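hiii so um. not sure if this is the right channel but i have a protein structure encoded as tokens and i wanna go backwards to a sequence. like what aa goes where. can anyone help
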């Protein structure tokens, strides 16, 4: 590299990092202009993530005598062991090109996004901290753009103070990126739904913006966690069915949702890449024989059970319930009962502090690298914020927002029940449960009418 090239690179890095600071300040001022409380929450979240991320990077980089057992060196930590593989893949893509990321590799959309960012910010673990700050900032802006009510402050507060999200934001992990995509999808659903009651000049623009947000969210999520992108499409179909069933102009409503659904499916197919065919085949089988879907869940769960792990919530030899066309009526009933019990245990692991479950001998494992106390705090934060969001929504929900509510509830319910049954490792559930709880956090912000927010509907009910 010549001196001129090196100088240009230094200038580019200075512009990027200076722009990140300026962008954070601009976002803070805009959010604060809409709500001083929301502005304070955002500032807190931004500062905590930046300070903690840089501190953990330096501690691991210089091998300082703090939490030595959790350090991997080079700026990486054992609490996010897969972060190293994402970072290495993204760093390689900056050398060989974004197109070199294989479509069938783990989370290719996230790796490509991180690689694009590192092209600007530099190939270093601290660049991932900055990328996660960008994801957090965009998430906060989307939430704040929907209005100024207490629901928006609660949603932003839940995303901000989540211990899991704070920890994940300090490492090259995809979780902050996934949360951003969930918020983008729900924001798109709000725009799409509320455009129906908007005045004519705003209707087309709001509908187009909503469709664009939904398509982008599904496309990118399909390249990170394809099953969740599929859940998004299913939730949209359920929301459309509810809109047709509860609203007027049924033919027009049917046409609106039916016209967007194939486009969302196309985004899923393109984003999922080589994983698409497996999901398409499974759905085709499930439509004709629901037992095929149950068998697929049983197979996925069996793989988790066999893998074991330091935080496995069931014994590796746990029997799997019988299923299939050849099973008798009694065996089917026993299998259904077993699945219900296993799902119930999964929900408890998801939403009850693990130390409490261990004290009642509902789960038993000795792993966790000493971080189980952190997960307990995270669980309590989740429980409190979920309770607040649900309570607020029951007080503010109106009939015309039903499709948004259905979209959020179906998305959260399908995700919760699926992962509660399939995933038998607490460490994995700790990472994945953000996908289940984030939509519920957004109930008060996106599903209830708000003041001067994106897609705000008129005071009169649409006909």
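sure thing!! here u go:
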């Amino acid at each position: 590299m010549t001196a001129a090239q090196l100088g240009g690179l230094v200038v580019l890095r200075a512009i990027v990092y200076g722009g990140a600071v300026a962008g954070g300040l601009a976002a803070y001022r805009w959010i604060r202009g809409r709500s001083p409380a929301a502005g304070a929450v955002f500032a807190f979240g931004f500062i905590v993530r930046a300070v903690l991320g840089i501190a953990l990077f330096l501690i691991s980089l210089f091998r300082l005598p703090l939490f030595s057992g959790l350090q991997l060196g080079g700026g990486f930590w054992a609490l996010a062991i897969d972060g190293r593989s994402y970072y290495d893949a993204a760093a390689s893509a900056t050398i060989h090109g974004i197109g070199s990321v294989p479509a069938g590799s783990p989370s290719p959309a996230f790796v490509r996004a991180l690689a694009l960012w590192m092209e600007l910010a530099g190939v270093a673990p601290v660049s991932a901290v900055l990328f996660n700050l960008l994801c957090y900032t965009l998430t906060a802006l989307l939430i704040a753009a929907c209005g100024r009510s207490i629901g928006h402050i609660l949603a932003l507060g839940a995303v901000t103070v989540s211990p899991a999200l704070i920890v994940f934001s300090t490492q090259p992990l995809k979780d902050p990126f996934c949360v951003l995509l969930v918020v983008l999808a729900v924001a798109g659903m709000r725009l799409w739904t509320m455009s129906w009651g908007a005045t004519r000049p705003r209707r087309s623009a709001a509908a187009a913006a909503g469709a664009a947000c939904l398509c982008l969210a599904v496309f990118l999520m399909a390249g990170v966690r394809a099953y969740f992108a599929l859940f998004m499409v299913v939730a949209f179909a359920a929301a459309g069915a509810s809109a047709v069933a509860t609203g007027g102009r049924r033919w027009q409503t049917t046409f609106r949702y039916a016209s967007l659904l194939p486009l969302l499916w196309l985004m899923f197919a393109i984003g999922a890449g080589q994983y698409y065919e497996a999901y398409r085949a499974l759905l085709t089988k499930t439509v004709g024989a629901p037992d095929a879907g149950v068998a697929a869940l049983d197979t996925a769960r069996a793989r988790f059970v066999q893998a074991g792990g330091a935080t496995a919530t069931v014994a590796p030899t746990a029997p799997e319930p019988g299923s299939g066309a050849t099973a008798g009526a009694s065996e089917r009933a026993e299998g259904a009962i077993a699945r219900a019990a296993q799902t119930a245990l999964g929900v408890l692991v998801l939403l009850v502090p693990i130390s409490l479950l261990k004290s009642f001998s509902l789960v038993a494992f000795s792993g966790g690298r000493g971080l189980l106390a952190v997960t307990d705090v995270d669980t309590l934060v989740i429980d409190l914020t979920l309770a607040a969001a649900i309570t607020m929504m029951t007080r503010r929900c109106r009939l015309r927002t039903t499709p948004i509510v259905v979209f959020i509830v179906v998305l959260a319910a399908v995700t919760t029940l699926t992962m509660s049954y399939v995933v038998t490792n607490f460490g994995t559930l700790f990472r994945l449960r953000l996908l289940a709880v984030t939509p519920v956090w957004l109930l008060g912000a996106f599903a209830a009418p708000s003041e001067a927010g994106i897609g705000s509907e008129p005071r009169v009910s649409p006909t």
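oh and The longest strand covers residues 71-73.
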